[in-house]
């Protein structure tokens, strides 16, 4: 039995902040059976300045983008270093892994770029730092996404379906297949910001609950070209900005009505994805109904989860109850796990999920500043 302690970081397209999660993984390297225990977790909220810099990143010149890449690497390193010290984890943490913040994701063009210079971040740490998990998979013909199901395969194997409601909603099916379903918090949060008043998101879905459906908008959303593609597939911000946001005309419709319509859209698309997966999932004696685990920031949107629950209940699914830390930090937790597998030299990105030509050991390993930290590296071999 082996035990490793790592820190995972995640910054999603909803741009609410940097999730940091310290996890202890316990398992058997030979049988590949793993469990986890969250030791500490928190979200470092982005300042208004950081939110604006990240939101405008894809419009920067080459030198400006490099500057942001370095600045974000420094910001990330400082946040993680402070987190480790604050929670008195200095003697326990053996590695850090990060998703980075995606700026470009165009797998059809062989491109996926995440902010956060790994060498800059590593210079602020005392343990190895792993990042850049998508590039290799994209190079060998994969989507480079979603990567979370690659971790669900080991850590959430008792769940039939895992749904993450982040900036984009995605599905993992028994840890064997997965894909991005539809835009989620990326459009809901954009509408709330458009409304003004200081709110960053629709707390509990109350604004959406107060609105009315806009049938013509719902039809346009349901007919998006992305939904005609077969998995494996991935969705990213540029597609949303070019094809989805123009449908949501706040000059023509009340924001509350658009929120109500978009929330209905997300709920129905999530339910459809679960229904399509149903034939490939066998029930067990412990769960006569097929189980669905819902996590991510959208899982705190009571109205959205209520609508999803209504759809799933009619289809014979049961939503799992899970602790709040797992709901909020599951993606950061999984990137810590993917980083651990990278350091162990084990496959951590799977072709059955991404569509690549083969599985891969993905992630760039950056050594810490001090050679005295070599002991941390040796613990993972």
Automatic annotation (TrEMBL):
State the residue spans of region: Disordered: 361-381
Which superkingdom is the protein from? Eukaryota
Q: Name one Pfam family in it.
A: AnmK
Q: Which Gene3D superfamilies match?
A: 3.30.420.40
Q: Which InterPro entries match?
A: Anhydro_N_Ac-Mur_kinase, ATPase_NBD
Return the protein name: ANMK-like protein
Q: Which organism is it from?
A: Mya arenaria (Soft-shell clam)
């Amino acid at each position: 039995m082996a035990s490793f302690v790592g820190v995972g970081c995640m910054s999603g397209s909803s741009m609410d902040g940097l999730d940091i999660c310290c996890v202890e993984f316990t398992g058997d390297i030979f049988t590949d059976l793993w469990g986890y225990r969250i030791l500490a977790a928190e979200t470092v909220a982005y300042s208004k300045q950081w939110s604006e810099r990240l939101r405008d990143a894809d419009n920067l010149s080459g030198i400006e983008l490099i500057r942001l890449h370095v600045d974000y690497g420094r910001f990330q390193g400082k946040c993680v270093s402070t987190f480790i010290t604050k929670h008195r984890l200095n003697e326990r943490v053996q590695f850090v892994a990060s998703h980075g913040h995606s700026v470009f994701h165009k797998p059809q063009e062989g491109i996926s770029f995440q902010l956060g210079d790994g060498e800059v971040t590593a210079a602020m740490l005392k343990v190895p730092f792993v990042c850049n998990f998508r590039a290799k998979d994209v190079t060998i013909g994969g989507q480079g996404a979603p990567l979370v199901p690659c971790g669900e395969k080991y850590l959430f194997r008792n769940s039939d379906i895992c749904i993450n409601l982040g900036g984009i909603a995605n599905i993992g099916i028994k840890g064997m297949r997965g894909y991005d379903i539809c835009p989620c918090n990326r459009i809901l949060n954009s509408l709330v910001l458009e409304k003004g008043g200081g709110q960053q998101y629709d707390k509990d879905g109350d604004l959406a609950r107060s609105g009315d459906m806009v049938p013509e908008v719902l039809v346009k959303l349901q007919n998006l070209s992305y939904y005609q593609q077969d998995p494996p597939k991935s969705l990213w911000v540029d597609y949303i900005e070019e094809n989805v946001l123009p449908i949501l005309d706040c000059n023509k419709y009340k924001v509350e009505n658009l929120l109500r319509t978009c929330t209905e859209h997300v709920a129905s698309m999530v339910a459809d994805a679960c229904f399509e997966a149903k034939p490939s999932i066998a029930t067990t004696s412990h769960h006569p109904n097929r189980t669905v685990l819902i996590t991510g920031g959208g899982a705190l949107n009571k109205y959205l989860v209520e609508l999803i629950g209504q759809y799933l209940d009619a289809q014979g699914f049961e939503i799992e109850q899970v602790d709040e830390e797992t709901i909020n930090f599951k993606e950061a937790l999984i990137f810590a796990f993917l980083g651990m597998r990278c350091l162990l030299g084990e496959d951590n990105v799977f072709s059955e999920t991404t569509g690549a030509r083969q599985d891969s050991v993905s992630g760039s390993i950056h050594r810490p500043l001090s050679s005295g930290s070599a002991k941390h590296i040796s613990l993972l071999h």
